[in-house]
Each structure stands twice: as structure tokens, then as C-alpha cells.
Amino acid sequence: MKALPQEERVALRRIIKLLEVNKRDFWLSVLAGAVGIGSAVGLSAVSAWMITRASQMPPVMALSISATAVRALGVSKAVLRYFNRIFSHRVALYGMSSLRTTVYSTLADSSTDVVTSVRRGDLLARMNTDVDAVGELIVKGIQPTWVAFFVSLISVAIVGSLSLPIGIVLLLGLIVSGIVGPYFALKGGRLAEETQVKDRTEISSRALTMLDSADELRISGKLSKLEAAQAHTEAKIYRNRDAAARPQALSIAIDTLAMGATVVLAIIIGSLQLAQGTLSETALAVCVLTPLAAFEGTQPLGEAAIQMVRSGKAAQRILDLLDRARAASSKSETAAAETVGSAQSAATTETVGSGQTADAVETTAAETDATTAGTTADTAAAGVAAAGVAADAAASGLVAHDLIIGWPDGPDVAGPFNFAFPRGKAVAIVGPSGIGKSTLLFSMSGMLSPHAGSMRLEGREVSRMDRTEVSQLLSLTAEDAHIFETSVLENLRVARPSVTEREAIVLLAEVGLGEWLTQLPDGVHTIMGDDAATISGGERRRLLLARALASPAQYLLLDEPGEHLDPETADPLIRDLLRAGKRTQHPRTIILATHRLTPLDAADHVILLARQENGEVGVAHSGTHAELVASVPEYAWAVAQEAAAPEAIMAETPAADPLLGPTFTAENMPAEAQR
Fold it and tell me: Where is the composition biased (Polar residues) (predicted)?
């Protein structure tokens, strides 16, 4: 351990605590391992004594005990090694399970910032390869070291009791084999680990890309380039592995030479003592043959040293991920606490969907009256979402105050936003592709920490709330949400475990999958392929929406629910989703981001995001669908274009729809639309 850098030693100590090692089983594994190899040492000693004594032609009864001991030691060696494997692997496997659970739960409770800051291949390596490497620390690192220590003590005690000089020689040989040899193995292991970590991450990341996008890469002709790059990286790994093998080979050579030198010196010293009459023939045989078994204890220490390095590096990577997750949570809590005071004295925000007139907003120049629900550019520039009553930081619902959103370590994407979404309202967020609609939904759900301002759910900062508590109040269905390789019913039960078969059938029919369900061989018990690879994109999307509706959450956030669907299917579905919150006894808030405008007549409020003249992204217009059609020419023209050529909208052609273009301004419209 001392040969490891300080940071690796600290990381190993911390990670061992996370393994929650069962000390009883660990020491039982050490005991079984030490006694097992000790049986091998005893077997060599007794066999040497028995062979030498038998050559002296003693009475048969003089050898009976030693013969029985040989059989007992031979059997116990195998049995004890078996128990050693049982106990050590149980400790390691339970520890790996505990560590994975800790990592998964920590990441699940943290913001999305942490996960998105790590490449997929790197995250996969940390969750699998690195956790395995830490678990193997018990089996291949710590436990063999303790076993070697106790076996060495037993061996030196046996030989030293017969011949002190040979015992000292054996001790020195074991030190060389157990310390000097592993030092070179550790050096080679460090070289291999430092050069291969990045390469292994590249392999994992590239392999995921090739698997997930094989068809697209094959069509574009880039698959062969990725395969060549993969082969080059693999060849580089083999070269580095060969270079690292040299010091490891030296470690093995040192172990072999130490054992050979010890045996030779034992023969020389023993022969001199035999000539002097201070050592008997049988004792000489024991002193010469016992070291052969004694070095069996130190032989695994070279691999143990390599495992220490490998586990130390893996522990650092895992702890780096955990520390970032916990730091992000702490940062969110601190930021939330700092915004409480300012949020309570914030400027007036407008409640979406109410029909009341907005309170006057004081400005340094003059007072501006908001006469309609966000249909003027001045209102949008002020960051007012819609007309309504004032909402303070403690208001119920989903409340944003001076919210500026963005991804971790990236620039601000949009904001500031000031709005309040009470329960039971249906809100649609519309804007060009890449304007920040999905980022806004992620920030509303607390998956992304705000760059500035606050986002509160039922009066509490959503990013600092426990994720389990958030999931009971709010459900986010992302554009790339996962479909698990299990039955349709179990996929719906991800949102609510109590969903019955009858409820599942109703939910699927509600999202337009009733006929599809009747065609499945086992109905709701039909197994889906990995991430629903066996069904179409539209069916996959609707299955995710059914899962969202199954959730007991009071706030449903839906990202592009009409994607992969033709307009004739998407529009009724979006209308149904917008009305879904009012069908239950307890109204739910529906907030969805979409490109479709036609079905937004079912929404209580529509928010249009666009890039302002100053380059900032914010609310360009807001109000009901009818109000926007009547007062915003761009919006009315876009709705008319959808009705005239829905296929152009599905293709998301900016020239066909100004709402889907780079900005939301009148300049994007044809001249006849501006008139």
C-alpha cells in the first residue's frame, strides 16, 4: 500500500468503506486461505520427514501417524481453498453490488449535470469495469496479502525451529519474493493502467456509437472508418500491454530466483550443520523442501500489486463521479438557499391561464400596462409569460423567478423566465429547433440546475428536493426516454407499480395503441425488445406517453409528444394530452414542448420562445391559441401553413414555417403573410 501514491491510498480506503465489507466473511476467507496454504506447507514438511525417516527403515508404526497426516493435509488443502474462494467471492460480490447500488442511487438523486458531463462509454466503464476492478481488490489484492503474511510466519516458524540460519534465509527470500518482486509488478501495472484507461474508454464509447447507429453509419459510409479506428486502438492497447509486461515478467523472475536461491542456500547451510552434527538428516530434508511450498503464499503478490494499482485508479474514477454528484447536490442546495430571500421580494410574475389583468410593473422609465395575455413585444421582452395574478416564491405550482437555463459548463441557453404554472392547466411551449424547449423542461423537473434564478415546485426549490419526492409530484417524459426489455405492462409500471392489466389497456387505447395491442401475441404481457427496437418510432413514442399518463404525478412534462407521428395522428394525440389533466378527479398540469401548432387550441396557454434582437432567448409571445392567431401574424401564418401542407411541417423545413426557423420574427414570413 505504501508504494501507492497518497491519492490512490486515500481513494482505496474510501472505496473499501463503500463496499461495506463483511468483516466476518473476510477474515474467514483469510483464515481458510492461510490454513489452506499452510496445509500445503505442512504437507511438504511432513512428506519430507516421512520420506527421510522411511529411508532409515524404522518400524512401520513409527510412520503411521505421518502417513495419516499426509492424507489429512492433502484433503484439507483442497477443501480449505474451496472455502477460501466461497468466502472471498461472497465478500467481493456483495461489495460490488453495494457499490453499484450506491453509485446508481447517488447519480439518480443528483442533477443531470453530472451524468451529461461524462461520455457514455466512460460512464459505462466506470459502472462496470471500474466497479469490477474495485471488487477484485478483495479477492486478488487484500486477501492474498494477508494470506501470504500468515503463511510466511508459519513457514519461517517451522523452519526456524529446526535451523535458525535457514529460517533467516527463508525470511529474506520471502521478503524478496513478497516485496521486491511485487514492486516491479506494480511498476508494470501502473504503466499498463495509465496508458490503457483512455484507450479502453475510447473503445467503449466508439463501440456504443457503432451499435446504436450501425444503420446510419453503414449508409453514410463511415462505419468502415470507425472499425479501422477501433482496430487501431486495440493494436495500441496490445503494444502498451506488451511494454507493461516486461517489468511484470521481471517480477515473476525475481520470485522464482528468490525461491531457488533460498532452496540452494538451505541445502548449503543444512549440509554444514549436518556435518557439524547440529542438524539431523530428517530436519535437513524438512528445511530444504518446506520453502518450496512456503513461496506458494507470496506467488500471488505480484498480481496483487497490479490489482492494487488497477483498483486504485478505478476507485479514483468512481469517487470522482460520486464527489461530483454530491458536490452538485450541495451546490444546488446552497444556490437555492441564497435565492430564497430574493425570490420572496421578486418582481411580479404572471400566473399562466388566469383571466385577470396583470399588475403594473415598475420600470426606470415608466409604467407599462399589460392589456392582453402577452401579445406585445414589450411584454415578452420584460420576461412576462402571461397575464394573471402575482405569484411569489412560496406560491403553489411550478414557479420560475429570473430563471436562466443551460447545460453544465456551457453557456446560458435561455432566460430569464418568470412564470407560474398552477395545477390543472395545460401549457404548450413552442419555438424553433434548438431554441431551448427541452432544456427548459429539464430545468423545470430539476434534472438540470439553473444557471441563475430559481425554479420552485410547490414552494420548494425543485433542484434541491429528493428525487423520489420529485417523482411523486412531477413526471418528465424526455424525447429519448428508455423502453426496458420487459413486458408492455412492466414498462408502464415503471411510472406506477400498481398499474393493473385493465388500466394498462385503457392507457394504451388513450394514446392510440388499442389496435396495436390487439395484434401483440401476448397482449400487455408481450416482451419488448431492447429499447423497443422491434416497434416503430411512433409506437415507441406513444408507449412512453402511456407511461407518462400512468404516473400519479400532478405535473406532466412531455417533450415532443407528436414526434415520429403523421399530422393526422399527432394532432388528436396532442389535443388528448392537453385535455388529459382535466379528466381526473384531481386536475393535473400538462406542460408539453412541440412543433405542432394546430392542436394547441386545446391548451390553456401557449408560450412562444425566440431569440430576441439582443441575442438572448426568451418569451417572444404568449397567450391562448386564439389570441395568438388573432394578434401575432407569424403565428397565424404558421397555423395556416400546417393546415395547407402538414407534410412540410413534419419535415421541419424552416422556409415553410417561421416558427421552425432560426428566429421568430416577421422577416421570416413571405410578404403576403406580413400583409
Answer: 341-356
